[in-house]
Design brief:
CATH class of the largest domain: Mainly Alpha
Oligomer: single chain
CATH architecture of the largest domain: Orthogonal Bundle
Largest sheet: 2 strands, antiparallel
Number of helices: 20
CATH superfamily of the largest domain: MetI-like
Radius of gyration: 31 Å
Structural class: mainly alpha
Order of helices and strands: HHHHHHHHHEEHHHHHHHHHHH
């Protein structure tokens, strides 16, 4: 009775079962391997590179590695000693000979305005330098900015291999040369305003989509199938059109001499001299984004409402409840999963929207995503842009975490 059970080939049954389970797991892993590779290449690696780029300054550090070593011992209270300027001169000369000085010029200009032109002018005069004379005096002779200690402090700060100053700049703060953190001058503060505007637009568009989508989804859920299918095609029709085309259409409709204003003028609702300003402001941004993101709210609501039995409302009214109380206490709470799923979908999409605010909103409708694109395309300060993008990513993850804790991701219904 105590003998272990064996299979027909003499192998222990427990060992055989373990091998069978192991083979199943291996086969399942091989089946999902293409998906895992796609996620790794398309999501994990780009996000990892983005996180690294926001704090990485190793390229600058490698170009001026010797300068970084000697300048760390400089106290920054007076102009650097000959030891520091001599090393910097040698490395700058080497970079100029190898056509690499442009890289440090751009990077140093992020730290201190005017550094790019200063480096370029100095490089043109390097051949006239006498290494037996004081290097700092010759730097100052080329340009008086070298006598400004702030430029040397900027050089010291710019050669640090890793730093988090771009994250501070994303909230209109700056780390001073002595290490203290302070806010920028009021006239230079723009990012905090853009963050608040982005959150306001995302929440506002989400609320507008909810107000419009709820009756639409209810109508789709109670109509006969042949009619609801036709209306569903109308809801999904924007998905079949390019986002750029839809945004351009709104520009035609909303501009001062556009279709909507012409209709209002023809109906004598507004005068021709007082046409509505619906473009290049927050009004146009709200209208266009709400229409574009509306299906993402309708579909989750419709999927939930379709499962609610009409007999529940009839039972409530038959027991003396008014239709409004029956809706408020029975029907509306049952649609919470659809409301929460649609809200998080619309909010996450709206908080990172770029094309529509840029075209319809103009300068008054600029969001943080437009600021990220500006630094990626115009200033080429990719570390600044990736720092903002990382903050945006963390904000979305926080919203997702709160949603999972309050509602539960398992309760999400998307259709």
């Amino acid at each position: 009775m105590n003998n272990p059970i064996r299979t027909s080939d003499g192998e222990l049954l427990s060992v055989k079962l373990k091998k069978a389970e192991s083979n199943k797991r291996n086969i399942a892993f091989l089946l999902v391997m293409p998906l895992l590779l796609f996620i790794l290449v398309a999501y994990i690696l780009p996000i990892s590179q983005m996180l690294q780029r926001s704090v990485d300054n190793t390229q600058m550090n490698s170009l001026l590695s010797e300068t970084y070593k000697v300048i760390q011992d400089w106290n920054g209270e007076e102009l650097p000693p000959e030891e520091v300027t001599k090393v910097f001169y040698n490395e700058l000369k080497y970079l100029a000979e190898n056509k690499l000085h442009g890289k440090i010029a751009v990077r140093l200009n992020y730290e201190k305005g005017g550094f790019s032109s200063l480096i370029k002018k100095t490089v043109r005069k390097l051949d006239s330098f006498d290494e037996n004379e004081n290097i700092l005096d010759q730097f100052i002779k080329v340009h008086k900015r070298w006598a400004d200690i702030d430029y040397w402090l900027a050089l010291k700060r710019a050669t640090v291999p890793y730093h988090f100053r771009k994250y501070l700049a994303s909230f209109d703060m700056i780390q001073d040369f002595d290490g203290s953190i302070k806010r920028l001058e009021e006239k230079k503060r723009i990012n905090v305003t853009l963050w608040l505007r982005t959150i306001f637009v995302a929440l506002g568009v989400t609320f507008c989509c909810f107000l419009l989508a709820y009756p639409i989804a209810y109508l789709l859920s109670v109509l006969p199938t042949r009619y609801s299918n036709i209306l569903m095609i109308c809801v999904l029709l924007p998905f079949w059109t390019s986002l750029l085309v839809r945004t351009s259409s709104w520009m035609v409709l909303l501009q001062t001499q556009g279709v909507l204003n012409d209709i209002l003028v023809s109906l004598n609702l507004v005068s021709d001299d007082n046409r509505l300003e619906l473009m290049y402001n927050m009004t146009g941004t709200f209208i266009a984004m709400t229409q574009i993101l509306l299906p993402f709210m309708v579909l989750p609501l419709f999927s939930v409402m379709k499962t609610i039995q009409p007999s529940l409302m009839k039972a409530a009214t038959s027991m003396g409840s008014t239709p409004f109380n029956a809706f408020r206490k029975i029907y509306f709470p049952l649609t919470y999963p659809g409301i929460s799923a649609g809200s998080i979908l619309v909010f996450v999409l709206a908080i990172g929207y770029y094309i529509t605010p840029a075209l319809v909103g103009g300068s008054k409708g600029t969001l943080i995503s437009n600021r990220i694109a500006y630094h990626m395309q115009s200033t080429l300060d990719w570390s600044y842009a990736t720092a903002m993008a990382t903050i945006l990513l963390v904000a979305v993850l926080i919203v997702y975490y709160i949603y999972n804790k309050v509602v539960g991701i398992d309760n999400m219904r998307l259709g």
